[in-house]
Amino acid sequence: MNIPENLKYTKDHEWISIDGDIATVGITLFAQGELGDIVYVDVETVDETIERDEVFGSVEAVKTVSDLFMPLSGKIIEFNEALEDAPEKVNSDPYGEGWMIKIKLSDNTQIDNLLDAAAYKEIIGA
């Protein structure tokens, strides 16, 4: 299973790419595989400051709807609007074009609580 080494992860199956105080967030290949074909991504929290572990949106698949949890506290500064017309990008390219939000971090020390690729692989049994 593809678990990029350069990313951080959460137990909620989200990946995080950190660039200074901006984090890009999406769901992992494992998560999208468990959900199935994604038909809608709902994020109505752009420009809101949300604490870590709070819900920032949801992803709807053919068989279920799942909440999306903030991996780090901060202000959501961007939603990947390409997902409005093509939510299947989350399935086809979860670590690239399927990214969901960008966050301006409010507490960089929280990064230390994220999982590295090896720890995430252990969680999913990869």
Task: Provide a compact summary of the structure.
With 126 residues, the chain is α+β, with helices and mostly antiparallel strands. The protein has one domain (8-107): OB fold (Dihydrolipoamide Acetyltransferase, E2P) (Beta Barrel). Helix content is 18%, strand content 35%.
Describe the structure.
The strands form 2 sheets. This protein has a 6-stranded antiparallel β-sheet with strand order 1-2-3-9-8-5. By secondary structure, the chain is an alpha+beta fold. It has one domain (8-107): RNA polymerase II/Efflux pump adaptor protein, barrel-sandwich hybrid domain (OB fold (Dihydrolipoamide Acetyltransferase, E2P), Beta Barrel). The protein is 18% helix and 35% strand. It is globular, with a radius of gyration of 13 Å. It has helices spanning 29-35, 82-85, 89-92, 117-124, and strands at residues 8-9, 14-19, 22-27, 38-42, 49-50, 55-61, 65-69, 74-79, 101-105. It has 4 helices and 9 strands.
